[in-house]
Amino acid sequence: MSDLGDFGDFDADAGTEDGSAADAAGSSPSSSGSEGTTTDGVTDDFDATTVEPSGEDAGIGTICVSQGLRVAEDGDETTLRAYVTRGNRSSVRIGSYLLAPYPDGETLFCRITGLEYAQQYHADDATEIHARRAMRTDEIDEADYKFVAELEPVAVLYEDSAERNAASDRTQSDDGGELKRRMTDRVPKPQTVIRQADDTEEIKTGLKIPDDGVFLGHLSVGGEKVRTAASPPTIDYRLKDDYDAGDPLVFRHSLIAGGTGSGKTHGAKNILRQYLATERTYPMADGREVSPAVVQFDPQDEYAQMHDDNPDLDGEFARRLEREGIAYGGHDDTTAFIPKVGSASYAAGHHRAEQVEFTIPFSMVHDNPWLVAGSGLNDNQYGALTTVLLPRFRKQYGNGGTYEEFTTFLDDPALREELDESGRVHEATFDAVRRRVLGFGHVFDQDARPITDLVHDFVRPGGLTVVPTYHITDSRATETIVLAVSSLLIDQKLSNDPDYDRIKETPLVLGMDEAHNFLTDADSVQAGKVITKFTEAAKQGRKERLGLFLITQDPQDIHDAVFKQINTTVVLNLGDEDAIKSVNIPSNLESKVPYMEKGQMVVYSPDNSEPVELIGLPTCLTRHGRD
């Protein structure tokens, strides 16, 4: 077989020694193609013809109808495609936002869901000649191929004004009417010129992103920030946070899910810092505007660092934050409330926040008996504890009875025999209860002030309270402390006759890291009581100004009753398929989750915006990480 290089080196005179064959045929046009020689020696000039249309391109392509043009209520029946011109093909990405104007001034806001090359002509390019020719050139010739983008209509943008500038293909008319959106209810015209969305107002309106609220990150597509012609060029994503736009989403509850190393804690700190901004307040029933209190349970002892400034946050970055209205810097009103557990000691060389020790008084068990029940009581045993043993102990020792006194009370053989003979508690049931309530001696009534005496300091408007449990090695003790304190806050928030007005009258964000350890689906009576309590808290949170802020790497382990009350889900990188499925985000974003880099996230908040992809801030707004 002849080498394909012969095609490039072909010489018309190569067949003869003196070129007579070529002479006999007459001289051919020169290789330049711009001039030729006639038989009488006269040279003619030929004008070069261009195939490029005159003028400048106004967009990146046009709506095409080669495979249909249809907009339907059922998204699966919608057919909307656009031809993208050669010069724009490298700049488009799946997920990019585009605009297709209607003749009357309204605009279709859509996003790219698929990209494909299609044959321009009937030809077979799977040949040796095509392949080897491509292998010997540095450029790719796209002239023989069509580049088509599949589009998903998101919304129709229109102006709410008396007059519209129908001649403009922009959505902002001369009279400055307010830009609004509605569901897609009309089809664009064939050959409509499409352009990339590059205006902040258009994009925010199209995606239903509020202008003001709690900052989460910047809008992105495929891991790259969406850029506009404005200053700053990025598009900030915020959660609704005032009653003019409905209930603040902080009281509709949030979940942050992400694997190890995904930037989960970094992102959580940045969000919580916005709730602690000086200007952030919420109206109470009595007409007062009150700053929220944030209580954060911290199993890894990382959130008390929010007291301190981040030394890596430089002046230029700080100015950018100020221009975008993002709160930053250490929060002075940060206190670490340290649970006193046996001989466990707490070391705090990594932060400068104030430290206050506290203990769980056994008196709290009377209102929450499952705290002392361990994890294995059945219905019969739990009933014996709550209806017989605890009431009798309380009657005998009063409200101030201690855990040590309770264990002594259960050690009385006469009590066991009496209850068995009376038929109130079988001796086997009595023994089972006694075994399971033992082992809490290092948890209750330690040498520190009871948490019930510290409520006024624990819940502070505008203050951050951190409850670290990293120093506690006993998981049973950790669970008891976290659930005891959170139950105190929830019970007082939901009560119509609270013992602590401070809790009732203060907006509260209750943060819980590793929430899957406390809100898991389990068969025990105690787990059921916990789930019921948190479900009620989630349901009534809007009314009582109580917001749950849950953080987990195992979202699939959080009970469905609680999960269903979550309105805002922030998903960072997750590698587990079950975890990804459990967060219930749209499939087009779900497929991106395993490949997201640190700080990339998907936000699914139906009452706030369309599902979107974001990039969080590269620098933590407070101190983060240990030296």
UniProtKB/TrEMBL annotation:
Residues 1-16 have a biased composition (Acidic residues). Pfam families: DUF87. It comes from Natrinema gari JCM 14663. Residues 248-467 form the Helicase HerA central domain. This is ATPase-like protein. Residues 1-59, 162-188 are annotated as: Disordered. PANTHER family: SLR6007 PROTEIN, UNCHARACTERIZED PROTEIN YJGR-RELATED. It comes from the Archaea. Residues 17-41 have a biased composition (Low complexity).
